[in-house]
Amino acid sequence: MLYGIIAATSALLLAALLAALLRVPALRVGLVERRRGRALPVVGGFAAVVATVLVARAGEWFGVAPLGGGTGRLLVAGSVVGGLGLAADLWRVRGRVLVVGTAVAAAFVVPYGEVGVLGGVLAVAWIVFVSLAFRGLDHADGVVGTVGVLTAFGVGACAVGEVMDGLAALLSVLAAALTGALMHNWHPARVGIGSCGALFTGFVVSSAAVLTQAGREPGEAVGVLFALTAVASADLVLVALAGVFAVGPRARGRRSGAVASAGRGPVPHLAHRLRLLGLTSRGAVVVVGVGAFSGVLVGVLADLGFVGGTAVAWVAVGALVTVLGLSRVRVKPQLSGPLRVRNG
What we know:
By secondary structure, the protein is mainly alpha-helical. The protein has helices at about 1-30, 45-60, 70-90, 95-105, 110-135, 145-160, 165-185, 195-215, 220-230, 230-245, 250-260, 270-275, 280-305, 310-325, and strands at about 30-35, 40. Helix 6 packs parallel to helix 8 (about 195-215) and helix 12 (about 270-275) crosses helix 13 (about 280-305).
């Protein structure tokens, strides 16, 4: 208990401090995106990644919180994915490179002995999907950090239920580090999370969720996995549908950009569309956070056996209604996704 408090506090403070210290250097080297007409340094996610890795490894080095083989591989693979995200923040990296790199990293994490070859392939595809979905959530101040903290806590609760202490410790440290970055990313943001932090968060929480559900009945496991990441999945599906049904030459150009960048194109995401309905920037984040909390709560309760498939089905219905409803919101170009400015 004492270690958990110290680790979480250390990760939170370290991430907050690093994000503040790296803000000015990021402006100088051009590690920024253009949001609301100004340059926003995207170092919050990098700070969260560094804080998570250092604090988690410190617990293992001092022998107070051994990660174990599976969790250790997960942390290494997540660091690689975070590195890919950092490259995407610095330069223009093709979407297929991120997809392939994330898939290769996921292949080293999936427990094939418990899920089988086919289950492993499906798990890799799902990890890639969720990782890109979290990258898409970095479209407005505070969104990906809020959803990431809630999801990390939820998956951590599942890990506790499965007596996976090392995995639970890693997820608690990740949640704390994201909270530290979120201190600078809440509207109006002083730093952005960026692809580095978003991909790392999506990869770690999705891979950890797969580890907690390995060995369960497929239908039950799929329901829990979906509920834990319902909001991120709904956002990516919303963007994909907007791209598929776009018409006209101008729309086709937007469609290809949106799909290739996994939701980073000019098609508005969840928070953008909520803004179009009249919500404030902070209000939109709160609504998205409430949706994420609801899905995560159902996922945790289903994992622990307190609720059944009916509750998960209601989460799916809610996500479907949200996607269909928000897809009808009239899009305004000025509220499209942030224009990203990178080196090169």
